[in-house]
């Protein structure tokens, strides 16, 4: 029934390749089927100005998309002179999600910037950015700890994200572009490794929904995120 | 227990005053306690370019805040030269929410722009904008129908929104600023008059949450939105 | 003869409601007929950089207009990405006018920002902004003096403004939009409570003018400003 | 008494050199003492969009200043990414002033753009731009008439401008920078060749003023503008 | 003597992997040692406006760099709100170089946009972009010809580019970052498959140079470009 | 054969008038035929931030063009809100060229900004800017040395620039606009007084070129730059 032939509760093939960028403190290339996102973590010695002298650190994210990551070319935001509302919304979400898994006091007065650049898009780029961004963050923190710069691990738990939606009347896991562009209801679910919720964003793109439908999507999301956390663990060895 | 002395499931005093702007096709001033938002609807003869020759209309929204709507002055976005990510995120949300309650085919090839300008802010400005914006939209559509420009009512149902969150360990309805700024979990719930969900946005600002907690917030939101829909009806007479 | 039926030397009904904004140090809503402007004063502890260590303070102003304050919707400047030349010209004028009534040495090294936001426009918004902005300024200074932060009153005199013009061949006071849009000559006159001139801006919109005509407009403006100063006094009690 | 040793009612040496730019339809270099402005007129076949099919033409102006026209270097506006409020205010004034001397119906559906670029600044650049800009406009219109493109002369009269102010307690004509930067009251006076007023802008920079003082400045301005119109005539031969 | 241990006339290992982007009409990932650039070609049905009704086509290029392609993180240009002068200079160069190898009349009224995004930077990104960009262009044109949209091949010859410079007193081929950042003289050489010159840009970064030195760098560049053209051929099969 | 009737190796008439701007530390107006560029040098007490505490100074350049310097009016970059890619490329080139002739250690921790504003354009504006910009720089440095602020002369040699190209099949020196707009190959050659090369930029605008052609253009450029250096010397007395 799904365009890809997947089962209702089947993720796309997940692949997370780590240490793909020579210069970054942490990096990975995450592939969710045909959606490919390059994630890097940069450690900065100083926190943002509003955290000076608070003892707290910060994790923030930026999101971009290569112009031809999409089916028809998207105008380059640098040439347009600004980031779109969509881009800003996504990068605020990624940053918020990752911070929910970090003890900012243990991180100390520094900032980690997660860059998520979509090399190829086929739906679910924001979720892939969160799942991959967390791996880059984990690698950068490992390096800080190995170097003795941070003593106590500031990472509280895994953070992973998956989308679910109602496609052709059925709740399905991990929408690809063909599904996403026609789904009635659609949601992004961000969870910890322990299964706690970090962020739920459900939206009636074409049809309003009931609490019961919401429950079924949450069921799918819980299963999906469990598999994604396992993929993160496998990638990190 | 709440800073305002309200009960856990008590809305702030709601007031919706209609026809407050001489020039707009529809307008209202909505007050949720000390949060005041001026909402206006502008009818434009043409739809946005991407809908030309589709027979479909569009509803969009813009959001702004007077510099001194807030406790300390916020820099004017026009002077800063761009709308913040937060502003863009909010106005995208308002437009999406209102469109979910509109039959765009019955609306026909025209656009209605909803402007939501926060005159005074005390938490919950995006929800008040949606609830008030819907009233402005309803009034503008009434005018189009009275003038015979639209024959079949494009408005499918009421749209209202309320925030809920976990404050001091308790689920509470309709957060004001004092609560919002310290809430652990926090969500916006947009619903129709019939009680269907349009958008759910829950976020772990300080603490992750369980499905059970999510359920309790949804219970509160359903009750709150029922009261807001009643207030919309009362305001429209 | 005037579209509104007013006499040649008759102001529109003036109303100045004070303390309308919960958060501001001073605020008022001024209504000149159907022109409504919300004015607020924000006290900042520091002067602008160019006044550091001079012992002098500063008063500045920003001006905005809600998109649907006007008959047809005006594009939001924040969305356009810049303030128009007209907006900048007006806010420079408001700031200059208010500074002319202030002893910046008595004010000390701080800045007061006057925000004038037009809620509804029917001509004469810049003059209403000055007259109302002064009230907001006065209230903010009262608060500073009451708190003992300023000892000697830095406000030298009232500042009020009114427009006059030649409409249908006759000099008239306080142009509304219907008059303003067809007036031949048109001017803004800013004066102190003592009747001294602060700024005179006369412009031949459609017809050049003589010194005699200029004199007649000044006569009207003097009478009008006297009434506006009385309205300021009444509003402040 | 004046820093330059000039008499109270004495203009700086005026020089207007015409046809200084190879490519422009009309051009001049105007020198008011050490203030030098290069003015050019460009004829465009089409009017601005808002005048399409009205039979009316338009005259507009743009103003700029070389970075080192001033005593200390001013940041290049192109590098800053926008024109300052001051620049916009000045170019709006120049355009408005020149249009007051033009029969836009006789001009027909075309636009003339006047560029005024300050090569060297010593006070009074906006007035010099108007006086020189008019000469460039006159030359461009002459060319249009000579080519038979325009039949009836759209130029109604000369337009010239001069500043006056109260310096060291005395009303003086044609302020240079040394005077302008310390003047109490200060005004720009734009007039036609016949002595009618086009625009009067007086401002209490440091001291409010009376109608009597205003009158004395107007007397000076009338005399000054008469001399400037004579200089325009001499330059045009 | 070279930091990498390469011989003076030795290129870095070159790898060109084609068809790496699912959506693009042509694409490749070019690796010159640790410099990796993703190149895609997008075919647009319409030429840029200035070529309408000329029968001629256009090839243009855009260049970008992931923030963490570099050793320390570079600010994202989309966030900065504009492309840097360096970026614009490079993308103008790439477009100019590729157009020199195209018969724009045979291409017809369409545009091919080459996007070159640096995934990892280690010197020589603009040369790699040209060499890889040409491969993406070739693939997109192949597709147009296969589909019968273009009949006569518009590609006149290969285009490849390499940098050479004087490092530690010796002329060396294909500078990497360690060499580039300390090179005295430095140049980019763009050539056709037949060995004709398209663009030569030599610059005295630290030391001026003689014609003889220029000749020695040209000798190296000719050899290097011959190898790069061979690599292009090998990649295309 | 050349549109101007010049011989193949003949420069346009060169004129360099010094000290033309009252406020600048150094200035000249350079005329290469109908191309006129006003060059000024501004000395700033502080180096750019990246050179703080290095003991090194900096020379930078900005380039602009009056809107009607060109045959048809060019949009004002300040009004467009940004400098074009062409402008940025040119000003980067000017700065790089002039720095190649300066001992930045002898200059010390200060910055000299060279502004090159094209008053009239007829081809070759970037070369004229370099040749004239060097004169402005020389004059500003002379003043610093005379004032004892700099002891050892930081200027190593003259810097001059000229364009050459293949026009109608013949190598010609110092292209004017008529030649430049149709030239097949085209280059800019920047040299020192001693005849060393600083920058060579050759581009196949319409036709690729051989090393032999490149050599012939270099011959012309060497002769041309020798004459330009002589003109610089003559202008400086």
Automatic annotation (TrEMBL), chains A, B, C, D, E, F:
GO terms for molecular function: 3'-5'-RNA exonuclease activity; tRNA binding; tRNA nucleotidyltransferase activity. The keyword Flavoprotein does not apply. Residues 10-140, 159-223 form the Exoribonuclease phosphorolytic domain. It is an enzyme of class 2 (transferase). Phosphate binds at residues 86, 124-126. GO terms for biological process: rRNA 3'-end processing; rRNA catabolic process; tRNA processing. It catalyses: tRNA(n+1) + phosphate = tRNA(n) + a ribonucleoside 5'-diphosphate. Its EC number is 2.7.7.56. It comes from the Bacteria. InterPro entries: ExoRNase_PH_dom1, ExoRNase_PH_dom2, ExoRNase_PH_dom2_sf, PNPase/RNase_PH_dom_sf, Ribosomal_Su5_D2-typ_SF, RNase_PH, RNase_PH_bac-type, RNase_PH_CS. Keywords: Nucleotidyltransferase, RNA-binding, rRNA processing, Transferase, tRNA processing, tRNA-binding. Homohexameric ring arranged as a trimer of dimers. Belongs to the RNase PH family. Phosphorolytic 3'-5' exoribonuclease that plays an important role in tRNA 3'-end maturation. Removes nucleotide residues following the 3'-CCA terminus of tRNAs; can also add nucleotides to the ends of RNA molecules by using nucleoside diphosphates as substrates, but this may not be physiologically important. Probably plays a role in initiation of 16S rRNA degradation (leading to ribosome degradation) during starvation. This is Ribonuclease PH. It comes from Aliigemmobacter aestuarii. The lineage of its organism: Bacteria, Pseudomonadati, Pseudomonadota, Alphaproteobacteria, Rhodobacterales.
């Amino acid at each position: 029934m799904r365009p890809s032939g997947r089962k209702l509760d089947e993720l796309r093939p997940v692949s997370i390749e780590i240490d793909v960028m020579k210069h970054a403190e942490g990096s990975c290339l995450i592939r969710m089927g045909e959606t490919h996102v390059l994630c890097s973590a940069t450690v900065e010695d100083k926190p943002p100005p509003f955290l000076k002298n608070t003892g707290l650190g910060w994790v923030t994210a930026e999101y971009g998309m290569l112009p031809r990551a999409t089916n028809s070319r998207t105008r380059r935001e640098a040439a347009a002179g600004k980031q779109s509302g969509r881009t800003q919304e996504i990068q605020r979400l990624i940053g918020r999600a990752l911070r929910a898994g970090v003890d900012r006091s243990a991180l100390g007065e520094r900032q980690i910037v997660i860059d998520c650049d979509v090399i190829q898009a086929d739906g679910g780029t924001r979720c892939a950015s969160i799942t991959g961004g967390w791996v880059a963050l984990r690698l950068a923190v490992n390096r800080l700890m190995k170097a003795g710069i941070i003593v106590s691990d500031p990472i509280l738990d895994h953070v992973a994200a998956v989308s679910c939606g109602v496609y052709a009347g059925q709740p399905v896991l991990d929408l690809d572009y063909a599904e996403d562009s026609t789904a009635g209801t659609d949601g992004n679910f961000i969870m910890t490794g322990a299964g706690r919720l970090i962020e739920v964003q459900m939206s009636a793109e074409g049809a309003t929904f009931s609490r019961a439908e919401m429950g079924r999507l949450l069921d799918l999301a819980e299963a999906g995120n469990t598999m994604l956390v396992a993929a993160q663990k496998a990638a990190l060895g």
